[in-house]
Amino acid sequence: MTSLPPERSRRILTGTNLGNNRDSTRQHNLSTVLGLVHSLSGVSRSQLTRATGLNRSTIAALVAELVQLGLVVESDLDQAQQYGRPSIMIQPSPGALALAVNPDVDVVTVALVSLGGHIVNAVRFHTVRAPSAAEVVNIVSAIYAGMRTSLPAHQRVVGVGLAIPGLVDPVGGTVIDAPHLGWRDEPLAARLSEALKLPVIAANDAVAGARAQATFGAGCGVSDLVYLYGGASGIGGGVISGGRLIHGSSGFAGQLGHTHVRTGGVRCTCGSNGCLEAEITREELIAAVDLPHGETENLEEVIMERLQDQVQSSDLREVIDRQVQVLAVGLKSVVNLLNPSMVVLGGFLRILVRAAPGALSEALSTTATRGPRENVSIELAPLGDDSILVGAAELAFEPLIRDPAGFLRLRTAVVEAVHNEIPVPAQTA
Ligand SMILES: [Zn+2]
């Protein structure tokens, strides 16, 4: 019989306290059921009954309401169930979509993501230089207009999640500082919302990635997780501790790329010297294999292939070995400070583990304190890691999952207001 991961079950059960009145209890239960169907990408009725502690008829009524709202579908019986009556499977409806947007220094990626974290359609728009915020609005508007024309009538976009390689004001979604893009105080979420007539929620890209890893990826069910992502715009991080995403006092926690790794080191965009993201860069790896601009998408495969020739790749090997040692110094601080049970490496950081198997763990074992280092496993996000897009979509899905019926009621009112040219009230995260 299939069962939920123990950590996941425990987390859900602690969240099923009854609300103050009937409406809030129903909203809470709808939210819990939709959250389970979403994060597990499908779940049987009997699993829902066990995980929530609600009785079968209540689960049936909640599922019926979610079906009516167009958020889940009932499908075939759970064939994996070995005992008792087969249970009906509940899956996320393909009809509810989020638009995920991730601008970076050389590409703007726009994707439609369905409930369950599945990327339905993704477009990568390459740029010759870092785009301005206004250009991002134009690029995303044009791509979204094209995507909308091919959407069947039963599919609707409920909101936009914006993953930014920089600091984002968690309240209004203003990009406070994205040094690699050259942006400061850009109200991108508000401008995009105005252009697309959709609610837009923005966050740091690696924080969005951490959220996706904890919900769907290697860290599913892991309550103490660090996600470290290396991209064209440096290194970002997100921290899940005790099952919760760590935001900090003003929403900027997880700036792991600015962990100090070398006194008097390379100047960083933050104004300091010797930060992790200044000392190890994707650019250095690209230069080591002499890959032309615009052909860097397959960097990992190119490097792994070049390393086959030990003589010809000695310079590349030197760069990788140095980056591994520097990453270990950065991870030492992270592991000692946060005591995670898992560190997930995404983007170009994957290459360092694949190109030098065991080297990072070995370097870490001689630097980090014995207790924390013995508990931590280092995992790789999948090749072609989509965590940032899936995590961006999570930002947009969050208000829907928190209050499915209420959110859709509000969306319908907003869509009607736009259609009838009635001023739309400002929407907040
Ligand atoms: Zn820095």
UniProtKB/TrEMBL annotation:
<comment type="similarity">
    <text>Belongs to the ROK (NagC/XylR) family.</text>
</comment>
<protein>
    <submittedName>
        <fullName>ROK family transcriptional regulator</fullName>
    </submittedName>
</protein>
<feature type="compositionally biased region" description="Polar residues">
    <location>
        <begin position="14"/>
        <end position="25"/>
    </location>
</feature>
<dbReference type="InterPro" id="IPR036388">
    <property type="entry name" value="WH-like_DNA-bd_sf"/>
</dbReference>
<dbReference type="InterPro" id="IPR043129">
    <property type="entry name" value="ATPase_NBD"/>
</dbReference>
<dbReference type="InterPro" id="IPR000600">
    <property type="entry name" value="ROK"/>
</dbReference>
<dbReference type="InterPro" id="IPR036390">
    <property type="entry name" value="WH_DNA-bd_sf"/>
</dbReference>
<feature type="region of interest" description="Disordered">
    <location>
        <begin position="1"/>
        <end position="25"/>
    </location>
</feature>
<dbReference type="Pfam" id="PF00480">
    <property type="entry name" value="ROK"/>
</dbReference>
